[in-house]
Amino acid sequence: MFIDTRKLQDDTVVHSTVCIIGAGVAGITLALEMDRLGIDACLLESGGYSADDDTRDLYRGENTGLPYAFADGCRSRYLGGSSNCWGGWCRPLDPWDLERRSWVAHSGWPFGLDELTPFYERTHALLKLGPNNFDPAYWEASIRRHDVRRLPLTGGHIRDTISQFSPPARFGKLYRPQLEKSQRVKVYLYANVVNIDANADASSVTRVSVATLSGRRLKVAARLFVLATGGIENARLLLASNGVQPAGLGNGADLVGRYFMDHPRLMSGSVRFSRAWERNKLYDIKYHYQNAAVKAHGTHVSSQFALKPAVLEREGLLNSRVWFFSLFYGEGSRGAEALIRAKQALLKKEQPGRKVSRDLLTMAAHPIDTVGFGLTRLLQPRSLITGVKMQAIVEAEPDPHSRVTLCDQRDRLGLPRVRVHWRVGSLVQRTFDRTFALLADELQRSGVAQVTLDPPTEGQPWPASLEGTWHHMGTTRMHDSPRSGVVDRNCRVHGLANLYVAGSSVFPTVGANFPTITIAALSLRLGEHIAREVAMPGATYKSDAEAPRKAPAAVPEESLALAAAAIAPAGPGLMPMPKE
User: Tens of pLDDT along 171-194?
Assistant: First the structure.
């Protein structure tokens, strides 16, 4: 069921068993789980069914670190969240991404990959992926094309990996019918949480304060609360909820907002393939989204290169992924960039300040570049490819000085805007340099290609071409100790009995894989924990040391649903809030 919060009376109180703040991948996944298990929940979404400028403005803030865009075009503040602007890349984390590594400060998760494996399996139906198989040999055999083949690398440093593509699943559209029909989950649109209200000793959350841009104010009371507003907004809301704890909720150790991470991305070098490999599409990003050649079992796939774990340990490097990037005719020209923006406009993607009419004039002024680039993207003839480069994303190193804080500016709802300070250090530079160098060496030794590398980045200022991938992670990191993390292994905020955090802000380390599939897996895991907690109140642990190292055995779904139904209210109710 959907409710327009702007139409509710002022001072309304919404009652529910579980309150989920944010209707992106994490929030909608949790809401679907609550619906499946028969647990009453309300889902609070800041926007509506589509983007609007006033709601989008709430994301804006200051940038004080490396040049970094984190608002317009990078996130979507309406039903579905960032799934609305997601490219669809999916691959689970590697086992060593979750391990403590002596050469990576602040690394390690409270549990290993085996904890997430059953939930990764469930994400395939949720994200509309293919078989739960990421073996490159399996996909090569399934595709069976001469122009989609694994490279015969022989140096022993490099492995090839597979990512699958979700269509991509736009959660707001894909799961809207199910949410509309639900009798257990109520979705409140245009509902902006402006404060998390805690009791006097900040041991539990009592309510959240909600405001609409139209001026309505109300409260939501629940037994359990889940903050699922993204890697930047999760930290912002905790820091801004400072009525009881001046530094913000969950921020006793000054960790909320710290360890902000994104995957840095760079291109490097010039690749000249031998004739036998010049038409291979398996590792080239330009052929992964729409080209039917790189597809099997109804699913597009992509292969990337990565360093083997023994090499990472020996050289003290972070994880990374590398692919080829064909340069199309006209690439980077004004006409080509205008054509890309025009396509984005047709897809109704966020481009504040851009006008299609201006882009049409630009394309008309540069017809050769525009037409050449458009035809090359559409038909992908090799004759119009002007070159090939290597592109890599590298794991971000956890850095407490890379952080999200609050600035002096306030948005229309009175909430302090964010200040983002993104830092990327020398270990990332060395990982870029060594990864490119080792891959170039293996390509040449194996007779696949000749590679000319760009100058190394280590010890130099970051080039202007460095960019993030809009994967906002790490600001409410997970750790068993409240001195080293904001949330525990169950994603519960340390010191607060009934506040949880969902999404990539809880990642202690981030690997070099795209986070959406892990966000979904962690949300499914959190849904199971919440269902158990609702069904068996009081099952929380007195201290983190008492928590088991493995997740408890799954309770039968029928038992969870019956127990939850027995103690939950008949449905999220509405009642006037008494005047204070």
Answer: 999 999 999 999 999 999 999 999
Does any domain span residue 549? Answer: no
Do 272 and 362 belong to one domain? Answer: yes
Whether 251 shows a pLDDT value over 90: the answer reads yes
- Per DSSP, the residues of 252-318 read TTS-TT-S-B---EEEE-EEEE-GGGTT--TTBGGGSSS-TTSEETTEEEEEEEEE-HHHHHHHT--
Strands 158-165 and 89-90: antiparallel
Query: Which 8-state DSSP code applies to residue 160?
Result: E
Helices 25-37 and 557-567, packing angle to 10 deg: 90
Helix 516-535 and helix 557-567: axis angle, to 10°? Answer: 60
Q: Answer yes or no: do 208 and 345 share one domain.
A: no
* 353 class by beta-carbon count within 10 Å (0-12 exposed, 13-18 middle, 19+ buried): exposed
Q: Which domain holds residue 253?
A: 1-129+170-262+401-423+473-536
- Total-model pTM: 0.89
15 is a domain residue? yes
Residues 100 and 150 in one domain: no
Provide the β-strand partners of residue 510: none
- How many structural domains are present in the chain? 2
CA torsion, ordered 152, 153, 154, 155, to nearest 10 deg: 180
